[in-house]
Design goal:
By secondary structure, the chain is of the alpha+beta class. Helix content is 29%, strand content 30%. Strands 3, 4, 24, 25 and 26 form a five-stranded antiparallel β-sheet that branches. The protein is elongated and about 145 Å long. It starts with a helix and ends with a strand.
């Protein structure tokens, strides 16, 4: 910087010597000198200093930019590489124009599996319904084969037809014959009304634990646990839990007395711990969504043994991918275990069904000691547009938020017929804004709600 200053201050012309005549005066030589020839260039100096300061500021700013660029460049490079890697397969498909071909191929694979399932059901039952379904599948096969050679492809329509036929095939399978006749109220059709709360109680673990499940033991032919009540709070972050409290009677539950606590996992993050407000006590076992997985766990209260099964579907949602939402999402409520007159159910959503509700029927094989998924239905109701759901007589009911003190049952899907009804308007009162869980119990025909730390029960009417 000093060198730059000196260069700028150098005179533009050539320097010249000054000649002067001197006189001896008082023993000294006195010479007249014109000092103006060497006067210091103050104005020029100040101008140069301003230039130097400006240049120094520019250099500092440039240095800061270089430093910042060095810090952010690796991040930008990693981001570009990530995006490039993610786009490569899509670019490949786009360049080759095989999106439609690939979709048709996947449709063909699904249809092949459906043909096999319908063929098995038809060979076992061979009734009017299975014959009709078999012919519909044959017609769909013809349409799909034609699509592979046609330029005009309506994939959306065909996918919807395939979904309906898959649901019909599931309805034909192993549902107990005339299961509706086992409970006379199921023959009356859908629920017509829901009472005001007949039970209201604060959770025995404190109302600050806003997520969990509770209810009455739900297996209709259970002997030992026939009148027991239970509470399962999510004590870790309102998302995870590892304990269950069981009361032997309604009076004990209301008094918070004579209970037994069970611990089914050593920690909240153990593979056997519970995720989300999803549990139901069915006979001598608690069924729930296993920690950070698409699995359903069964904890045996007598043996303390946990069994599990993975739910079927392409991209089953868990770990807060497809929670109940509508007004506000309930954390980690992706998989919901329910019980009704026909047995156990799992309610969830999948990527393959575009985030819409999926219902699978669960059966416990006591001899083989395994949980089996016997049937699966796909609906057109988006799960995140639902605040909660429950099962009654093989019918899926879904609710939505109305206001801080009201919910509304607005949707029903009948697994026996595959038909949907989104015109319901059954009011459901509550005492707090959020609904963590909602479960129907076939032994007393009541609906149990875990309402932000409050435990409510309602009577259903058909």
């Amino acid at each position: 910087m000093l060198m730059l200053l000196l260069l700028l201050l150098l005179p533009s012309g050539d320097g010249q010597a000054q000649h002067a005549s001197g006189q001896k005066k008082n023993g000294s030589c006195v010479c007249p000198v014109d000092a103006s020839l060497w006067s210091f260039p103050v104005v020029k100096y100040e101008a140069v200093m301003r230039q130097v300061e400006t240049c120094e500021g520019s250099l500092n700013a440039l240095q800061e930019q270089v430093t910042l660029s060095s810090q952010f460049l690796p991040r930008f490079q990693a981001l570009v590489e990530n995006l490039t890697a993610r786009l490569e397969p899509h670019q490949y498909l786009r360049n080759r124009g095989v999106y439609a071909d690939l979709s048709v191929h996947l449709l063909g694979q699904e249809l092949t599996q459906l043909e096999a399932d319908v063929g098995d059901v038809h060979s076992q039952l061979n009734n009017t319904q299975t014959r009709k379904l078999f012919k519909e599948v044959e017609k769909l096969r013809t349409d799909v084969d034609r699509m592979q050679t046609s330029d005009k492809i309506n994939l959306k329509t065909v996918k919807e037809r395939l979904r309906l036929m898959k649901n019909n095939a599931e309805s034909c399978k192993s549902i107990p014959k005339d299961f509706r006749s086992q409970s006379s109220h199921c023959l009356k059709g859908l629920i017509t009304s829901i009472s005001e709360p007949v039970t209201t109680k604060v959770s025995p673990h404190d109302k600050s634990y806003i997520s969990g499940s509770w209810g009455k033991q739900a297996q209709m032919d259970s002997e030992e646990q026939r009148n027991s009540y239970w509470v399962q709070p999510l004590l870790s972050g309102h998302k995870w839990g590892n304990s269950l409290r069981v009361y032997q009677s309604y009076n004990d539950f209301m008094k918070s007395a004579k209970y037994k606590d069970f611990t089914f996992a050593p920690s909240y993050s153990h593979t056997h711990s519970i995720e989300g407000p999803s549990a139901v006590l069915y006979g001598e076992a608690l069924y729930y969504n296993c920690y950070s997985s698409a699995d359903v766990c069964r904890y045996d209260l007598k043996s303390n043994v946990v069994h599990r099964v993975t739910l079927p579907g392409n991209g089953v949602g868990y770990n807060n991918k497809f929670p109940y939402c509508y007004y506000a999402c309930r954390d980690n409520s992706d998989v919901d275990i329910e019980a009704d007159e026909t047995g156990l159910w799992a309610i969830y959503a999948t990527v393959g069904n575009h985030g819409n509700l999926v219902v699978s029927r669960l059966v416990w094989d006591s001899e083989a000691q395994t949980i089996n998924v016997t049937q699966t239905w796909e609906t057109r109701q988006f799960k995140k547009a639902v605040s909660n759901a429950f099962m009654v007589c093989g019918v899926l009911y879904a609710t939505r938020y109305v206001d801080e003190y009201h919910e509304e049952v607005f949707y029903a899907f009948d697994t026996a017929t595959g038909k949907e009804d989104n015109s319901l308007a059954l009011p459901l009162e509550k005492v707090a804004k959020g609904v963590a869980s909602l479960s129907y119990n076939p032994t007393d025909k009541q609906i149990y709600m875990y309402n932000d730390g409050y435990l409510l029960a309602y009577q259903t009417h058909f």
